[in-house]
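Collaboration report, partner site 2.

Our partner group contributed sequences for two proteins of shared interest, and the home lab folded both. The records are reproduced in the order in which they were received, starting with the first partner submission.
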Amino acid sequence: MGLDSSSTLQDALDQYNNNLAWEGNITKAKNILEAIRYLLVNRGQSLSEAGSNLTFESLKEMQADVKAFVDTASPRSETKRATFTRPTLTRY
């Protein structure tokens, strides 16, 4: 789907729910991983709606599982991404 800064919480939840059967499907895994990341960044402590409850601890656990699958199933070129850290500068 492609969540971005104009996406709503409902967009992320829809993407999450539409990709629950991600096991064995790299496209769905990438979509649900994106939704999980969105929900973790734009969160309170938990979400509740219509009798269901989603905790962010469970999202973090699921994120680790999905990321491990995506890293394993993706071609090598896709898994070599730049990190968001800077190298330590040494003073001489």
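Second partner submission, folded after the first:
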Amino acid sequence: MPLRVGRGAADLMTLVEDERLRRQLTHSVFFAFEGWGDDPREVHEILACRRYLQALHAQFPYWLHFLAPVPDMWGVLLLCLLEPDGDSVTLMPGSNRRARSCDPDAVNRLLQDMIRPLQLLHEHMALTQEQGEAILEQSLAAIRGTMSL
């Protein structure tokens, strides 16, 4: 059964389409899952949450611009988008939470796939190279904050 991400994707795409929101809400998006409070698993361990974020990401690849540069947010997103692996990069969604290892090449591929939409968005916004790099660097700093090498 296909996931229903239409409304979530449409709401997020409003951020991309509205010039004022693109600028005003840079690094301002947070997400949360409701209804799982009694489930002892981490969000990334819940298949329904993982699939939802994967389907949402397929329609909204602009996380590097909009997702808050908070390591916990990035940890959950990356863990939901990546497949588990036993290699050397450990992503930690929070300081008191279980960690999970991911293939470092898969992390790099995912981030590379996110950079092109970011660049296109920044070109459309007519940001300078320095402005675009500053936004990217804030996201990358948060991402580095999720990793234990």
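Feedback sent to the partner group on the second submission included the following. The chain has seven helices and three strands. The radius of gyration is 15 Å.
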